[in-house]
Amino acid sequence: MTRSSLSLTSERDCRARRMLGGAILAMLLSAGALSTPNTASANTDPNTPIIRYDGQRGQNVWCIQFILKNFAGHPNITIDSTYGPETRQGVIDVQRFFGLPLDGEVGPRTGEAFKFIINNAAGPGTFGICQTLVPTLT
After folding, report:
1. For residue 43, what are the contacts with CB-CB under 8 A and spacing of at least 6?
2. What is the DSSP code (8-state) at residue 51?
3. 3-133 belongs to CATH 1.10.101.10
4. Is the pLDDT of residue 32 over 60?
5. Dihedral sign of CA atoms 126, 64, 46, 103 in order
6. In whole angstroms, how large is the CA radius of gyration of the chain?
7. What's the pLDDT band for 17 if we cut at 50, 70, 90?
8. Do residues 79 and 69 lie in contact, with contact meaning Cβ atoms separated by under 8 Å?
9. Are 122 and 94 in contact (CB under 8 A)?
10. Distance (Å, rounded) from C-alpha 48 to C-alpha 6?
11. Vertex 31 angle, CA 118 and 24, to 5°
C-alpha cells in the first residue's frame, strides 16, 4: 500500500466514522439510552474562563471548531482558531440541543456538552488536550 493510498483510506475512514458517530449519537440520545450533562444552570461561575464571541483566538477555540466540524453536525465550519459567526452559531446549536441557555459562550456547562459529544462520538478519554483548554465542570 502506498503512502497516498493510505492517506486516502484514512481520510475516507475518518469521514465515515464522523458520519456514523454523529448518527449513532443522535439515535442514542433520542432513544434516551445516554444521559446528557446536567443542564440546570448556565455558564455562571465567574472564576471559570469562558470562550466568547468577540474574535477570540487560540487553541481553545480550535478545540470547539474541531468538535463542531467532526462530531457535532457542522462539517462546513472553518477551523481557523478564531471565534467568529460560524463558531458562535455552532455553539448555539449545541446549547439548543442540550437545553442550555443560548448565549453562544462556552463556559463550564457548555464545555461539558462538548466533552459529552466527543466522548460519545469518538470514545471515552478522547477529549485529550481539549480537556485542559475547554472549560468544564470536572
Report:
1. 50, 101, 103, 105, 106, 107, 108, 109, 110, 135
2. B
3. yes
4. no
5. negative
6. 15
7. very low
8. yes
9. no
10. 42
11. 40
Please name the residue that has the C-alpha cell 483566538: 57
φ/ψ of 51, rounded to 5, equals -90, 120
Question: What are the cell numbers at 50?
Answer: 469562558
Within the chain, where are the H helices?
Answer: 3-31, 59-71, 85-98, 108-122, 130-133
Cell, residue 110 = 457548555
Closest alpha carbon to 67 in 121, 13, 125? 121
Model confidence band, residue 37 (pLDDT cutoffs 50, 70, 90): very low
d(CA 127, CA 41): 23
Nearest to 23 by CA among 72, 91, 87: 72
* Grid cell of 19 as nine digits: 458520519
Confidence label for 36 from pLDDT (cuts 50, 70 and 90): very low
Of residues 15 and 64, more confidence is placed in 64
